[in-house]
Design goal:
Helix content is 91%, strand content 0%. It is mostly helical. The longest helix is centred in the last third of the chain and has 40 residues, at 35-74. The chain is flat, with a radius of gyration of 20 Å. The termini are far apart.
Length: 75
């Protein structure tokens, strides 16, 4: 139980840190570029960060499905 509590506290602190840094970055960024450009850059950055995770997750899921299909094929 102690390990999961530590993990939860760490994740909350990490989330708060990211949120705070993002707020400062957004405040500073909005002084130099317009809102649509800033939102577009944020969206592209989000895609670049999430895309590798999505690809890996899909490969793992497809690998599991392939193993399941092979098992059914030989049963």
């Amino acid at each position: 139980m102690q390990k999961t509590q530590f993990k939860g506290v760490f994740l909350l602190l990490f989330t708060a840190f990211i949120w705070g840094v993002a707020f400062v970055a957004q405040s500073e960024g909005m002084e130099h570029i317009d809102a649509f450009t800033f939102s577009g850059i944020r969206m592209i950055m989000g895609v670049c960060v999430l895309l590798p995770f999505i690809i890996v997750r899909d490969k793992i899921k497809n690998k599991g499905l392939m193993n399941e299909q092979k098992t059914k094929l030989f049963d």
